[in-house]
Design goal:
The protein is α/β, with parallel strands linked by helices. It has one domain (3-263): TIM Barrel, CATH 3.20.20. The protein is 33% helix and 19% strand. The protein has 7 helices and 9 strands, in the order βαβαβαβαβαβαβαββ. A 7-stranded parallel sheet has the order 1-2-3-4-5-6-7. A two-stranded antiparallel ribbon has the order 8-9. The longest helix has 18 residues, at 130-147. It starts with a strand and ends with a strand. The relative contact order is 0.16. It binds zinc ion (2 copies). Residues 81, 107, 109, 154-155 line the site of one zinc ion. One zinc ion binds next to loops.
């Protein structure tokens, strides 16, 4: 494991530590390629506080570019985690094109207005039809991929976060969604944060990863660090899961294009 594409910064108001300390922790852990992927200023209200403002994002980009000069021993990528806010596609496209991003994660932290992955959203699960919620979530993942605004789908089944699972085998949702993600040319991420949630395992599940592998979908690893000490977190667990699904390498990105692979080590 020598790569981590999903780290946040203080600009999103819910991560701690200096940006340099993320890079230094990564170097100390043998990571030679990492990317920041902070939250872009696209979230539905009232959740904008969880993202950088447009002005802060400008500063974030210049900080990453400066750190790239200061740490030549690190291949430092400029990434972004951007929510798909339906109806704002033109603004998102213009925003993303304004910066020299190496990759952009597309994220779905809301399902048709429901903040399903927030503590504050938990009461909203009461009385909800979970089958419908999961259907809408996985359908929206595919619709997000089909916008082709983003390069990598972050934490693909984050809907598992609070363990409100639709009854039955979730493969029926994956079967409809994975081919659409593949057809849209989007990569996916194996994300360590699920190890700290009720899911107690990375996002996505082994079954999802197997289908993605069979569909030829490229894969990256992301710790989803919101503190420097989490950089590279649980990489061995994530890699083992990916290997079990048949993957042998992480895909690298530069300038919003695939830039070769990094074999599992
Ligand atoms: Zn975050
Ligand atoms: Zn996220």
């Amino acid at each position: 494991m020598l790569l981590d594409y999903h780290t946040h910064t203080h600009y999103c108001n819910h991560a701690t530590g200096t940006m340099a300390s993320y890079v230094e922790t990564a170097l100390a852990r043998g990571i030679r390629e990492m990317g920041f992927a902070d939250h872009a200023p696209f979230m539905p209200q009232p959740w904008m506080k969880l993202a950088a403002t447009f002005e802060e994002y400008e500063q974030y980009v210049s900080d990453v570019l400066r750190l790239r000069q200061e740490y030549p021993e690190m291949t430092l990528r400029l990434g972004c985690e951007c929510d798909w806010v339906e109806g704002k596609e033109k603004e998102i496209e213009t925003f993303l094109a304004a910066y020299p991003h190496d990759y952009v994660y597309g994220s779905l932290h809301f399902v048709r207005g429901f903040a399903y992955d927030m503590q504050e959203g938990i009461p909203g699960y009461q009385g909800r039809d979970l089958n419908q919620l999961w259907h809408d979530y996985f359908d929206d993942l595919a619709r997000m991929a089909e916008t082709k605004l983003f390069d990598i789908l972050s934490h693909p089944d984050l809907i598992r976060k609070f363990a409100y699972q639709a009854p039955g085998d979730p493969k029926r949702f994956y079967e409809k969604t994975v081919p659409r993600i593949a057809a849209a040319g989007m990569a996916i991420e194996v994300n360590a944060s699920g190890l700290f949630h009720f899911t107690q395992g990375p996002y996505p599940t082994l079954d999802f990863l197997r289908m993605a592998r069979q569909a030829g979908i490229p894969l990256v690893y992301g710790s989803d660090s919101h503190a420097p000490e989490h950089v590279g977190c649980c990489a061995a667990v994530c890699q083992a899961l990916a290997a079990e699904a048949g993957y042998t390498a992480w895909t690298r990105f530069a300038g919003r294009r695939r830039a070769g692979e990094l074999a599992f080590g």
